[in-house]
Structure formats: structure tokens, C-alpha cells
Amino acid sequence: MRVALARASGGIRRNVASRPRERANARAVESRAASEAKQTASTSTGLTPEESKRVCAALAEDLTHLFDEVGIDASLYAPDVSFEDPLTKYDSFGGYNFNIQMLRRVFAPEYVMHDIYQSGDWEITTRWTMKMSVPAFPFVWRPTLTFTGTSIMGLDPATKKVKTHVDTWDSIENQRHLSPEGVAEVLKQIFDFTQTPTLDTPGYVVLKKMRDYEVRRYDPYLVAETGPGLDVKEMPESGAPTKMEGQAAGQAFNSLAGYIFGRANASGTKMEMTTPVFTKSNKMQFVVSGKSMDALPASTNEKVVIKEEQGGIFAAKRFNGVATEESARDVEEKLRQLIKNDSLKADGNAALAQYNDPFTNPLLRRNEIIIPISNFVM
Q: 320 - beta bridge partners?
């Protein structure tokens, strides 16, 4: 989501014919304005392709040090650079850098830049994801904050240094400093009490965090998969419920647990616990830790197969509580409507991801509906 920022200026015409001092002042203002107009005209063409490439490369390299011990390079920024995002605002490089160092020390941010490009004559835009860990005290539930958005950096035509830096978030519409929507977004994430176990889990990066769902890029991962009492290779790919219930779920879980705990794999290897448990189209999957299928022991249960999920781009919506078939379908319907509203195309069946064991308080359980999408662009 890009936000165009514009400033309009105007004045009031006054009669200065009988006021010599004001006439002189007016002539001085007109002279300065003419001089500034001449200077602007000489730089109105903006960055040359070579300059754009050089500035983008310098900023891309600099931003890799945004939250490490090296820090950003002051020579790329004007001393009076202004910075603003929906939470903070500074009018000097010192204040800007102070904010960066505070975030680094308190929240241990993880910053990923996805793109950088020239977006105006004297403007560079980056697209990024930032994830932060909230201190354990007083936030004992250890929430994490994730933001995606853009940094719009205005350059001084004379020095080619960053003069203005405005961050936007994809999750809100009102990008003004301390807008109620921005504050509410932060509080919503802080007071998300759902818990994610510290177990091996498929890797992904959030490409866009919208108000009510996320778009993620998943890395490939390995799973053990089954459908209770059936040959999974013959199971339909559509028309089946997302959530397994009752005896079928119990049979599937026991079959997969037999493989993971060594009772039904060729080497008798007991494997590490992982999260989440996926269910989709009457199939259940346990994530399996390993670098390749060849490194995993073969299944001795014909109803359990080992396979690699290819990863890709998915829309995901989180919810807590007990994930019943009804609640899973309700969240799936909401997610499908959300991605349709954003002109995204669903490209397959939904999966339910359950991260917690049955003994976890339902209010703290992390459940998600995940749907593959095919037409997402940054």
C-alpha cells in the first residue's frame, strides 16, 4: 500500500501600494521565489538512472545495518532529516537514530527489506517486514509485534541525502502520527494472548500484514500425512471438511504419532515434537524435522506417507479457542471474503493449523486458517 503525501500552501493577497516597507519586503520575497524557482527548474528532472541506481544500492546496503551494532550511515541523511511513522516523530538525525537504537535494545527487531525502487523524481521507496519481541516484563505472555509497510524517503536535490522519511503500515488506513487506528493496532498485537510453543515449525516470512489477515511466503517443509482408514493417495482434493472430528481425528493422530515416536518407522527413531498439526481435505499432517525426505526413516504404516510441502504464498487468519469444524469453516469463509475484497485469488483448499496441545487453555490456543493464493504481488 502506497500513501501519497502532499502539502498545499497558500497566502492572502494584501494591498501594499501605500506601504513602502511592505512593498520592499514583497519584492524581496518575489526575488527569493524567482531564485528558488530557477534552482528547482534546474533539478526538476530528478535523479538520473545512474544516480538512482547508486542511491538505491547505498540505502539497501545501509538498511541491512538498521538494527545491528554497525548502525546506519549518517552521511546518507541530512542533519535535519524528519522521520514519521504512525507511532513516532523526529526532526533530526539524532532523534531518528535514537529511535532506532531504542528499538534495537528493547525490542530486538528482525527487519527484512523486500524491495527498493525510485518512486518519484526525488523519492525512494522501500517495502519491508519488521518483527519485534516485547520485553518479558511486564508482558509475561511474550507477545510479538509484526508490521509490514513502506518507507518513503524524500531526497534533497542538492545533496542527494535523505531529507524526509515517512513509514506507512499495511494494517491501517490512517497513517497520521498517533492516529487512533495506529495506536489500536499496536495494542491489539500486544494483547494477543495466543501462545506459540517453542518447537520446530515451518519457516515463513510475513509479506503483508493486513488488518484482519496476513500474506505469508512459506519455505518448503516435510510432513508425515495420513487419512484414517484410507489410502491418502486416493483421497479427494476438494469437497472435504477442513477440520477432522471425533474418531477419524483420533485414528489419524495415533497413526502419525506412531511414526513420530518410533513405533511405526523403519529405524525406530523417536523424533522431536513439532508444531502445528495441519488438517485439510480429510488429511492430517505432522510437521517432521529434517533436511530432506531421504534423511527420514521410512514409514512402516501404509496409511502414513512422508512428503514435502512445496511452500509458496498463503493468506492466513488467526483465531483462538477450540477449533471445531464449525469455527474453522466460519474463519475460512471470513478469510475467503477478505482476500476476495483485496482482489486476491484463492488457489486451493484451506488448511487448519493447530499449534497447541489439548491441555492448553482455549483462550491461549493459536489456530489458523491458511489458504494458498496465486496472484499476489508486492
A: none
